[in-house]
Specification:
The complex is a heterodimer of chains A (317) and B (238). By secondary structure, chain A is α+β, with helices and mostly antiparallel strands. Chain A is built from 9 helices and 12 strands. In chain A, helix 1 (9-28) packs across helix 9, helix 2 (71-79) packs parallel to helix 8 (273-281) and helix 5 runs parallel beside helix 6. The chains are: A alpha+beta (317), B mainly beta (238). Chain A: GO terms for molecular function: ATP binding; lysine-tRNA ligase activity; tRNA binding.
């Protein structure tokens, strides 16, 4: 058996320094560190994220889910009046493994009452730059970025147009799917590589269909989700929202997610009624973001593979 | 012995060999992959191959794609935090040698390909086919010019070659990385020139032409790197 760690001891010291840096950053800004449960009574409905389940044990009635992010629990704290909070937490996503993914990974997630996504993007940049050192920072609306890099309007283009843009540069065989599949393909295969060497690139205001847990409103006559992503040299590092606070709309999205799961032959997920009740009770207007801490360490330490940042990656744990 | 003693004259009567001579810049044949035929009865392979999901794709796995056997070279999991997961897979088409990237939706499956690499002994060439024998079973296989490509320039009787079988027939053949072959034709050796640089073309017993130092003469046996077609030195023993 290979008992030895995947990361070097130097790398583990760098990880400890990163954690200390993060805590120092938030302490200086008056953001409270919190801890929430890893094993939750409901999972996540998002069809593109699959939770791991724990089904046996005297304490387990029904199924418990390893969290895919601490988002729902932290929103309950916000609704309870916590004020600004952050958490460094393990998160688990089934089937995600590769040079940039480990099924168990560390998220840094934080919430800022009173912020919108633009204010939060600036705070994310502050944190990342304070750790990585000076880098250029770009902000692009999702729509403008597609127009600039691929010459296609992601909000209005026909499905056929998106497909032909992809097929002109990629072999995708018989790939088929809805608009979001093609947009995700264009983003991950064609746009991401063009962000390499450009420092921090924030992308914001996603198509409404990709709003996830962000609020939606009209910008230039088109409905967009106020969600943002941060890419650092082409590596996706963080995903944030100007948070949806409307319990009715949140329930509608959960149900729609489950319908898409059904169509795709995936398990339906129980809705997180705790979260829905918290939203109904009233969560303050806020923006929140989840940042992959292992990936930030990859960037800081110059690693090409996430396994080099982990004491024990999935195959050794 | 299956091979006749006059195999060289047989080979040299084969036009593909007579026309050869580009010993440099030889591609590694195994990477190319070609059409082929079996020596004896074609093996009817009743095996149903397993299906493999994208998360089982790993380097070396052989799969069927668009009707051709392919070898997976690399498999990159590409997934936005929120959004569709893909696998960007680098493949080599074992028939054409083409290497390219194909993107799949994560979770898609491909059928495994009945492709096996076997170490076999080269026997002889009959002007049309090259014959190989599996040392354990003595089973013989014939590979045609497409399967063999330029690799025949390095085939030496009784040498071990890597034969890639697809549905039981040779798809490609890779010679050993190093072979020792006799110089059959070159300009006369220059005595006292051992220390100088300088090289000249030398034709080897297989028809391959390699650049050798000026001091070598016909009848000498040299060692050649088959991956580059480069002279490595005199053979330890001729």
């Amino acid at each position: 058996m290979g008992w030895q760690p995947a990361a070097t001891l130097d790398r583990l010291r760098q990880r400890a320094a990163l954690l200390a840096h993060v805590r120092d950053f938030f302490c200086g800004r008056g953001v409270l560190e919190v801890e929430t449960s890893l094993l939750c009574s409901s999972g996540i409905t998002d069809p593109s994220i699959e939770p791991l389940r724990v089904q046996c044990g005297q304490s387990i009635t029904g199924t418990r889910f390893l969290q895919t992010s601490p988002e729902y629990a932290m929103k309950r704290l916000l609704a309870a009046g916590s004020g600004p909070i952050y958490q460094v937490a393990k998160a688990f996503r089934d089937g995600e493994a590769g040079p940039r993914h480990n099924p168990e990974f560390t998220l840094l997630e934080w919430y800022r009452p009173g912020f919108d996504h633009h204010q939060l993007m600036r705070e994310v940049a502050d944190l990342v730059l304070s750790y990585l050192g000076t880098q250029p920072v770009e902000y692009h609306a999702y729509r403008a970025l597609f127009q600039q890099e691929l010459g296609v309007d992601p909000l209005t283009a026909e499905l056929d147009t998106l497909q032909s843009v992809a097929r002109a540069e990629l072999d995708v065989g018989g790939l088929s799917g809805d608009r979001d599949l093609w947009l995700d393909l264009l983003m991950s295969h064609l746009i991401e590589p063009r962000l390499i060497g450009r420092g921090l690139c924030f992308v914001y205001d996603y198509p409404e269909s990709q709003a996830a847990l962000a609020r939606v409103s009209e910008v230039d006559g088109m409905s967009v989700g106020h969600r943002f992503e941060l890419y650092v040299n082409g590596l996706e590092l963080a995903n944030g929202y100007w948070e949806l606070g409307d319990a009715v709309e949140q329930r509608r999205r959960f149900v729609a997610d489950n319908q898409r799961r059904c169509v795709a032959g995936q398990n339906e997920q129980p809705l997180d009624e705790h979260l829905l009740a918290a939203l109904a009770a009233g969560m303050p207007d806020c923006a929140g973001v989840a940042l992959g801490l292992d990936r930030l360490l990859m960037l800081g330490a110059g690693c090409e593979d996430i396994r080099q940042t982990l004491a024990f990656d999935w195959s050794r744990s | 012995m299956f091979a006749s003693r006059c195999w060289f004259s047989k080979i040299s009567s084969f036009p593909a060999v007579a026309a050869s001579g580009n010993a440099c810049n030889l591609p590694k044949t195994r990477a190319l992959g070609y059409h082929c035929r079996h020596f004896s009865e074609p093996k009817v392979n009743g095996n149903t191959m397993a299906n493999y999901s994208t998360n089982e794709f790993k380097s070396g796995l052989k799969v069927m794609l668009d009707g051709d056997p392919c070898s997976i070279l690399d498999n990159e999991f590409v997934k936005p935090g929120k959004g569709q997961a893909f696998n960007r897979v680098r493949l080599r088409n074992l028939k054409t040698g083409r290497v390219w990237d194909r993107t799949f939706k994560s979770g898609e499956t491909l059928e495994g390909a009945d492709v096996m690499d076997r170490t076999m002994e080269y026997l002889y060439n009959d002007g049309e086919f090259w014959y190989f024998m599996e040392p354990d079973t003595f089973e013989q296989y014939q590979a045609d010019a497409k399967a063999v490509g330029d690799a025949h320039l390095w085939f030496k009787e009784q040498e071990k070659c890597e034969v890639t079988l697809y549905n039981g027939t040779p798809l490609s053949v890779a010679p050993p990385n190093f072979v020792e072959l006799e110089i059959t034709e070159t300009d006369p050796g220059l005595k006292g020139d051992t220390a100088q640089g300088g090289s000249k073309p030398a034709t080897l017993s297989t028809g391959a032409v390699v650049k050798v130092p000026l001091f070598l003469s016909e009848g000498e046996v040299i060692r050649v790197d088959t991956r580059t077609g480069e002279y490595q030195g005199r053979a330890s023993k001729s």
